C-alpha cells in the first residue's frame, strides 16, 4: 500500500513537472534560464514546482485586468500627434510602440538631490492641494518624515480632499498596520500592493500627483534615511518636481495601478465621471519636452531598458550614468562596451558604500568588465550613500526616475522613468553628475583585478544570482 502511494505521488510529480517545463519552454525565455529550470526540475522536482509556482510565473498578467486602462488609452490618442521631436524621432518611435505614454512639452522642472529639499517642496505642495492627492511609494517609514506626511494627508482629507495612497507591502514591510489604519480612519484610500504568489514582483514607484498639475518622481521614498539620518549616513539622491502636462503621464500610471490593484467596484469608475478634474487644463509653463517610460513584469517589452539602450546607441560624445546598483542585461552591457571602444566618453558613478551586500559585489564584476573597455568608474564618498538613478547622453537627452540599472528594475519591478529632451535641463543634470564625481574617486583600470582571491570569489558567486537581486 505504501509502495503504491509512493508510486502514485512520483507519477503526479512527474506529470506536474512536465507541465511546468512545457510552460517554461513555451514562454520563450532566455535559453540559459530555460536550461537551468529544466535541470532544476530533473534534480529536485518538489522544490522546483514550489519555486516555479511562487517565482517563475507571471501571475500579475493573469490576475489583474481592468477597463480603465482602455478608457485612458482612448483619451490619450489625441496627444500622440501633437508633440514630436525630430532630433530624437528614432527614440520616440520605439517607445511609442512599446509604451503607452505620449510626449508633453508644456512643463517646468526642478531637481532635488537631497531629502530635506524634496520633502520641503512636497509638503508645501500637499498643503495647497484643492481636489486630490495621489501617492505611490515603494517604502514608507513610520518615522519623522513618514508621520509628517501622514499628518498632512489627514489634514487635507478632513478638508474634503480625496487622498489615495498605494504602498508596496514588501518594501514597506516594517511600516505596521497602525500607520495605515490611522490614514483609513480619516477616509484616506490606502491600497497595499502585495501579490504573495509572486513576491519577486514589486511596485518600486515613487510618485506623487497633486490636482493633476504637479507631480514628483525620482529615487526617494518616504523615510528619515533620505535626510541622512539612517545607518548609511549622508544620502545623495535625485528627484524632480514637475508642473505641467507631463503630470498627465504620472496620473495615468497611478490610475492604472490603482484599478489593477484595488479593482474598485464603483460603476462607473471615478475617473470616467470626473476625467477633467484629474486631467485638467494646465496653464502655460515653459517648453520642456518630456516623455514617460514604464515597464514591469506585466509589460510586453522592457521599455525602460529599450529606451536606455537606444540612447546609448545614439551617443556621439559622452554617456554619464549614476546608479546605486549595476546589474545590466547582456544587451545593455554590450552597448556600453561598444560605445566605449568607439571612443565615446562613458562614465559611471557608483556608491563607495555597500547598501545591499549581494548586489554590491555582483555589480563590481560588471563594472570591472566595462573598465577593461575604457569606461571610467567613480566610487562615491565612503561616508555617504549614492542612490541617484539617471543617464544622460551628449548633453541633449536624459532618463531619470524610479528605475535602477539592473535586471530587477527592467523586468521584475513596476517602474516609471522620465525622458527629458532639453539641453538646458540635461546640462543641469550633467553639472550635478560632475559635482558628485569631484567628490568621488576615479578608479584605476586594474582596481577590481587587484582584489584578493576571496573577494573575487565572492563577487562571482554573487554574480551567479544577480538576475534575481
Describe the structure.
- This protein has 469 residues and is of the alpha/beta class.
- The protein contains 18 helices and 20 strands.
- The chain has 3 domains: 2-57; 67-88 and 102-288, 2-Layer Sandwich (Endonuclease, Chain A), CATH 3.30.870; 303-468, Endonuclease, Chain A (2-Layer Sandwich), CATH 3.30.870.
- Helix 2 crosses helix 3 (45-56).
- The protein is globular and about 65 Å long.
Helix % is: 40-55%
Structural class, from secondary structure content?
Answer: alpha/beta
Find the CATH superfamily of the largest domain: Endonuclease Chain A
* CATH domain topology of the largest domain: Endonuclease, Chain A
- CATH architecture descriptor text of the largest domain: 2-Layer Sandwich
Task: Write a brief caption for the model.
The chain is an alpha/beta fold and 469 residues long. It is 45% helix and 21% strand.
Amino acid at each position: 500500500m505504501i509502495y503504491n502511494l509512493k508510486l502514485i505521488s512520483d507519477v503526479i510529480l512527474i506529470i506536474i513537472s512536465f507541465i511546468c517545463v512545457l510552460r517554461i519552454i513555451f514562454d520563450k525565455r532566455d535559453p540559459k534560464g530555460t536550461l537551468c529550470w529544466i535541470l532544476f526540475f530533473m534534480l529536485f522536482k518538489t522544490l522546483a514546482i514550489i519555486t516555479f509556482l511562487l517565482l517563475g510565473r507571471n501571475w500579475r498578467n493573469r490576475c489583474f485586468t481592468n477597463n480603465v486602462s482602455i478608457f485612458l488609452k482612448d483619451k490619450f490618442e489625441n496627444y500622440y500627434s501633437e508633440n514630436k521631436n525630430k532630433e530624437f524621432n528614432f527614440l520616440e518611435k520605439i517607445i511609442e510602440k512599446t509604451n503607452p505614454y505620449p510626449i508633453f512639452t508644456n512643463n517646468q522642472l526642478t531637481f532635488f538631490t537631497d531629502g530635506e529639499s524634496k520633502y520641503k517642496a512636497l509638503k508645501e505642495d500637499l498643503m495647497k492641494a484643492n481636489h486630490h492627492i495621489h501617492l505611490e511609494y515603494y517604502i514608507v517609514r513610520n518615522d519623522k518624515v513618514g508621520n509628517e506626511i501622514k499628518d498632512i494627508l489627514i489634514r487635507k482629507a478632513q478638508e474634503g480632499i480625496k487622498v489615495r495612497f498605494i504602498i508596496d507591502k514588501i518594501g514597506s514591510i516594517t511600516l505596521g498596520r497602525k500607520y495605515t489604519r490611522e490614514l483609513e480612519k480619516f477616509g484616506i484610500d490606502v491600497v497595499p500592493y502585495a501579490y504573495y504568489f509572486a513576491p519577486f514582483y514589486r511596485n518600486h514607484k515613487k510618485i506623487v500627483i497633486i490636482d493633476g498639475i504637479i507631480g514628483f518622481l525620482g529615487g526617494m521614498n518616504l523615510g528619515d534615511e533620505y535626510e541622512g539620518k539612517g545607518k548609511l549616513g549622508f544620502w545623495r539622491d535625485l528627484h524632480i518636481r514637475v508642473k505641467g502636462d507631463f503630470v498627465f503621464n504620472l496620473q495615468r500610471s497611478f490610475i492604472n495601478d490603482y484599478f489593477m490593484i484595488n479593482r474598485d467596484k464603483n460603476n462607473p469608475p471615478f475617473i470616467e465621471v470626473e476625467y477633467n478634474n484629474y486631467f485638467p487644463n494646465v496653464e502655460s509653463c515653459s517648453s520642456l519636452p518630456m516623455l514617460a517610460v514604464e515597464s514591469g513584469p506585466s509589460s510586453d517589452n522592457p521599455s525602460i531598458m529599450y529606451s536606455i539602450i537606444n540612447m546609448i546607441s545614439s551617443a556621439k560624445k559622452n554617456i554619464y550614468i549614476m546608479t546605486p546598483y549595476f546589474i545590466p542585461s547582456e544587451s545593455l552591457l554590450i552597448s556600453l562596451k561598444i560605445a566605449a571602444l568607439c571612443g565615446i566618453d562613458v562614465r559611471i558613478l557608483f556608491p563607495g558604500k555597500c547598501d545591499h551586500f549581494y548586489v554590491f559585489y555582483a555589480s563590481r564584476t560588471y563594472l570591472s568588465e566595462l573598465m577593461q573597455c575604457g569606461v571610467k568608474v567613480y566610487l562615491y564618498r565612503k561616508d555617504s550613500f549614492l542612490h541617484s538613478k539617471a543617464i544622460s547622453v551628449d548633453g541633449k537627452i536624459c532618463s531619470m526616475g524610479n528605475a535602477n540599472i539592473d535586471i530587477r528594475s527592467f523586468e521584475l519591478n513596476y517602474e516609471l522613468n522620465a525622458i527629458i529632451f532639453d539641453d538646458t535641463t540635461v546640462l543641469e543634470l550633467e553639472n550635478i553628475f560632475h559635482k558628485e564625481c569631484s567628490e568621488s574617486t576615479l578608479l584605476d583600470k586594474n582596481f577590481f583585478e587587484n582584489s584578493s582571491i576571496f573577494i573575487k570569489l565572492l563577487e562571482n558567486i554573487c554574480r551567479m544570482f544577480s538576475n534575481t537581486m
